[in-house]
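Box 3.1 A note on notation
Throughout this textbook, protein chains are presented in two layers. The first layer is the amino acid sequence; the second is a token string describing backbone geometry. Keep the layers aligned when reading.
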Amino acid sequence: SKEEETRVLFCVEETPICRPPKGLTRSSSRQHPPSDLALLVLSPLAHFPSCRAPQVAVGDEVTVHYVGRVLGGHVFDSSRAREKEFNFVLGAGGVIKGWEEALPMMKVGETAKVVVDPELGYGKKGMPPKIPPDATLEFEIE
């Protein structure tokens, strides 16, 4: 529907090709993902002209809430369930590579759904018992 279409600002398909949904234009400040990362902004800010939210950048101290799931399966971690935000410095290696690539495509205050292939997550080993080997992960990050 038209209402749903205007809620989506930027969608990166599960290919290296980046393009916005039909009828929308990508914000010029958005970066192209360096890999096959899939990212869908659920609460875009660019539709509000008065909002000048900064882009998240490498070196920023970032505070997020997130829910992590094995794709099609169980929740393996959630800052919301702990009722405690997660803090880290973007680019310092404190999070999985999928997050290092996804967050610079977001603006402060946005919520995004991010699908992370095993190569950008926990790889062939996984993180037993909660994350199996070669697991594709899905995060909702705010």
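The chain is about 10% helix and 25% strand. The radius of gyration is 15 Å.
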